[in-house]
TrEMBL record:
Source species, domain of life: Bacteria
Protein's name in the database: Uncharacterized protein
Disordered: annotated segments: 58-95
Transmembrane intervals: 29-48
UniProt keyword annotations, A-Z: Membrane, Transmembrane, Transmembrane helix
Extent of Acidic residues compositional bias: 66-83
Amino acid sequence: MPDMSASASLAMTHLVSFAKEVDEDKVTPGVLGFIVFAAMALAVWALMKSMSRHMNKVDFTQAPDPEAEQAEQAEQAEPETADTETSGQGKQKQG
């Protein structure tokens, strides 16, 4: 396995020599870059604040659905009648 510190130091020497060749005046973002970054930060802050307000308005409690309750009651009632019918038929055949 190669020595990682040697390859890292070699990469750093190449990067440092490249950084010395680049003109510092052409690379800096300047005032325009700061203004754009600040505007984006303010936009994100405003969106998060708005989202927080809207999420606080949401009521997460769920009201029971009357149709679903009726369907559950109907399903519970059907197996009871089916059990009595099948047990009655079984008795008739035996007797």
